[in-house]
Amino acid sequence: MRTHGQDDLHGLNACGALYNPAMASPPPFRRPVIKLGTSTLTAGGDHLSLARLAALVEQVAALHGTGMQPIVVSSGAIAVGRQQLGFPTDKDVSGKQIMAAVGQSRLMHLYDQNFGFYGIICAQVLLTREDLAERQRYLNARNTLLGLCERRVVPIINENDVVAADEIKVGDNDRLSALVANLVDADILLLVTDIPGLYTADPALNTDAVLVPEVASITPEVEAWAGGSRTGLGTGGMATKLAAARLATASGAEVRIVDGRERDVIARALRGEAMGTRFLPRTDRVEGRKRWILSGLRHAGRLIVDAGAAHALLSRGASLLPAGIVAVEGSFQRGDSVEVVGPGGEKIAAGIADYPADDVRAVAGRQSSEIETVLGYSYGGAVIHRDNLVSLLSEGERAHAAH
Ligand code: GLU
User: Fold this and answer.
1) Ligand 1: does its nearest atom lie under 6 Å from the Cβ of 161?
2) Domain end marker among 261, 290, 319
3) 3-class SS at 305?
4) Same domain, residue pair 89 and 119
5) Is 351 close to ligand 1, i.e. is its CB under 6 Å away?
6) How far is the CA of 104 from the centre of ligand 1 (A)?
7) Does residue 111 belong to any structural domain of this protein?
8) Span from the CA of 376 to the centroid of ligand 1 (angstroms)
9) How far is the CA of 129 from the centre of ligand 1 (A)?
10) Domain count within the chain
11) How buried is residue 220: exposed, middle or buried, by Cβ count under 10 Å (0-12/13-18/19+)?
């Protein structure tokens, strides 16, 4: 057993229960995304806590040992870089980018050492918003991450702060971890932070605040509970955690906010122990991911459809035929993602176009049977096949719009 010195929070034997061969049922989760915030890694101080990092890695290693495919989203680069550089005072973006450049390599070195102790290889993955918004890069990132998991490597993800200026930033690692959860079809996103969970008010300011054990739906009331509370060194606060929970639950993952100061917290939460705040998934994973891939991407064009087509799409899940298209915007290729806009200007769906923009213009308003005559070729009678079409409306909105 490894010992790490004096950190009182270090889980003494995080592996115990999970390594127990007599464990009756397999672990309930297959691919958890575990987000470790800056204040968790620094144990609330301004220096990285080596003992804390070791304790967290020990827990992730234990999950890995059960056959799970854990993926870590780790903050801390800026804090570690700041520490390495002797706490420079600059607060501007370029100063932070410099700190991140210094800190990220040190951080990875420490992860590498700590995982190495368990014979586990880890990999650095730095992402920006662009990497998740652009189709080809999204798919590359997804393939790489899934490939790493299959090879039993633990990906350690952070935002690529060095190149991510404001306009291309995801912004905070809560959100990044939700995007990653969607990217890899995670079944649970664990937001490990330095508070016990979501309270009905800021517990630092209000003694009546109570911990909320479970949230089925993130209503305005729930959002009001989060207020604008922030944690110390990191970027996020409860509001960014809720935004992340909203995203990840919409893609079919359960989300848990848990307190990284608690012993063995990762393993316990994943075993289903009631702790922290649990957000229930709102959809099944495949449908959620499909919808999100299409809705979150930059669309190359827009197809404006008439009321009949909108109705067919929404009420019957029909393919989009050329007859219902009244206008085509943008220049897209076959295979690009496009938005479908109803007669009132509302975005109703997104999908993959089977024809390039100019050819859709040529066949818009015509019967499917005319496609071959007009274009001299045909990829089938639909401009977007129903299998590649996803509604962007909620079920309620869909029912409303279909009438
Ligand atoms: N990417 C930042 C870092 O590594 C953290 C951002 C966040 O805490 O949300 O320091």
Assistant:
1) yes
2) 290
3) strand
4) yes
5) no
6) 10
7) yes
8) 53
9) 14
10) 2
11) exposed
Q: Tell me if 7 is assigned to some domain.
A: no
* Reported confidence tier of residue 403, pLDDT bands at 50, 70, 90: low
- Enter the pTM of the model: 0.71
Same domain, 303 and 238: no
| Residue 289 to residue 220: CA distance in whole angstroms | 24
What does the pLDDT look like over 115-144, one tens digit per residue? 999 999 999 999 988 888 776 677 788 889
Distance 132 CA to ligand 1 centre (A): 17
How far apart are alpha carbons 216 and 234 in whole angstroms? 27
3-state secondary structure 121-155: CEEEEEECHHHHHCHHHHHHHHHHHHHHHHCCCEE
Closest ligand 1 atom to the C-alpha of 173?
9
Q: State whether 370 and 282 are in the same domain.
A: no
pLDDT bucket at 297, cuts 50 / 70 / 90: low
Domain contains 13:
no
Q: Kindly indicate the confidence band of residue 228, based on its pLDDT and cuts at 50, 70 and 90.
A: low
Q: Is residue 32 within 6 Å of ligand 1 at its C-beta? A: no
The ligand 1 atom at the shortest distance from the C-alpha of residue 236 is 9
Does residue 15 fall inside a structural domain?
Answer: no
Q: Look over the chain and give the mean of its residue pLDDT values, rounded to a whole number.
A: 84
What is the Cα 150 distance to its own chain's centre?
A: 19
Measured torsion, CA atoms of residues 13, 18, 21, 24, in degrees rounded to the nearest 10: 140
Residue pair 179/145 in contact (Cβ under 8 Å)? The answer is no
